[in-house]
Structure of Ribonuclease P protein component:
Amino acid sequence: MVSKMKPPVADVVRPNAEPADVSADLSCLTPETLKKRADFLRAAKARRLPCPAFLLQARQRDTDAREGLRVGFTCSKKLGNAVARNRAKRRLREVARHVLPRHGRAGWDYVLVGRPDATAHHNFADMCADLERALTKLHGGAT
């Protein structure tokens, strides 16, 4: 008969680990996702910064709603079938996840719009560099 008991979990000491009582608010580092059509339309009327693999639309929100930064993603049927659109959106999400916490600003909405034949196949490092460059230009050189 085989015992189904779980082995005891040993306490692992990690020398470089942060203390458990650190209560840093990480909500400002992870962007909230835009979900309402009205937010996308407001961003579409705002500033546009073209990049080789995508288009960045950005707007500063009203002063009463400046909690954190928000990001949205758009990939139309011009990009191809559902598989191609989903791949492009996954890549845009990953680019935003890498770049926006460091270079985005609280109180801003960003929308990344996919481009046909570019978003799904463009070099990922170049896409990250393009987004950093666009945010630097948008915010006047100081991000």
The radius of gyration is 20 Å. The mean pLDDT is 82.
